[in-house]
Design a protein that fits this description.
This protein is mostly helical. It is built from four helices and two strands, in the order H-H-E-E-H-H. The longest helix has 15 residues, at about 55-65. The protein starts with a helix and ends with a helix.
Length: about 80
């Protein structure tokens, strides 16, 4: 993954990201997370459990389209076109 082992170990020892992790945990619980995997798209769509590639692509395209409304020209989202 390209992580520097010493920096990663220091981050764990120092608990540098403790508040951010706790905030993520609270948000996941608010969205209904009860296990892993649990994906959140655009902070609004929760996908519990493993899903197939087609379902994930469909959900990604829906989240993109809803957060990027048409502004004079409509077409496929970059997600559904494979460019995002």
């Amino acid at each position: 993954m390209g992580l520097d082992p010493d920096s990663a170990a220091e981050a764990l020892r120092s608990r540098r990201y403790r508040a951010r992790v706790a905030a993520d945990q609270r948000e996941a619980q608010r969205l209904g997370a009860h296990g892993a995997p649990f994906l959140v798209l655009d902070g609004r769509y929760a996908i519990p459990g493993a899903v197939g590639a087609d379902d994930l692509l469909s959900a990604s395209a829906k989240a993109w389209d809803e957060s990027h409304p048409c502004r004079g020209r409509c077409g496929s989202s970059p997600v559904s076109m494979g460019t995002a």
